[in-house]
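Meet today's protein:

…
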Amino acid sequence: MSEAKGRVLLSMTSMHPKRWYDLLSADREVVLEPDGEADPNIDYAVVWKQPHGVLKKLPNLKAIFSLGAGVDHILTDPDLPDVPIVRVVADNLTQYMREYVAWRVLDHHRMGATYRSQQHERVWHEPPQPPAGEVNVGIMGLGELGRAAANALLALGFSVNGWSRTQKQVEGVATFHGEDGLTPFLARTDILVVLLPLTPATRGIVNYDLLNRLRKDGPLGGPALINAGRGQLQNEADILRALEDGVLKEASLDVFEAEPLDPQSPLWSHPRVFITPHAAASSDPAHLAPLMLEQMDAFERGEPLRNLVDREAGY
């Protein structure tokens, strides 16, 4: 390990640091806590839900690296230093999300909940199955993960729509943007996939009003919701209400307002809700740590950092 390489603070909660520590410390000196109230010897911080205030103790900090695709866990720190923030962009993370979205879309399309119920009741019945081309999948969020998911769904034959805050073009996808584009986007969506970043503008966006604007006369007998973005994007009471009112047929939820999901939550036992424990695209240290180390090395050679966060936009 070169003595000239900058030191790294690894600060994380809700994940165990050992694998990250072992991989990062193979190339750089890594510490888990700053040395006192002002530690001038830390150049980089690698964080996940870091304790608020810990980064302000690093007067010579050059960059912050997020351990996950989202950065809202960093931006909520009121004492965040004014240094570049690097978000994760990795092929394996993108592939995990591509797989998850395709899996859940196919399950809703091929009536997985219906067949699971029929199996439980020992019912032998084949309901009508519409072709994929008649089903409109709408993706909210056309960043790296959203575009990858869209391409996977196009390859499966689905009609794909996309909505984003600002105008974007994705080949083969009918795109909408801004507040004016949201209602027409929802009105043609049978399966809604939420991959938005969490910002003040998107917090709680998946509410009853939004769900009530989804296409109601589509080939699946009602719309389905898939949220693999952030739990704070959704209002869970509104999702349950929409399911009970028939506004929503089914839901696949990987993220929740509070995690882990409360054992008493009615979502656990709802027959038309499929739950995974924030596992759609987990950060794998073996893939991500080398990418962070490569960026640090390149930065010290005078090269610019990549995949920087726009603080004003929140992602």
Q: What stands out?
A: The mean pLDDT is 96.
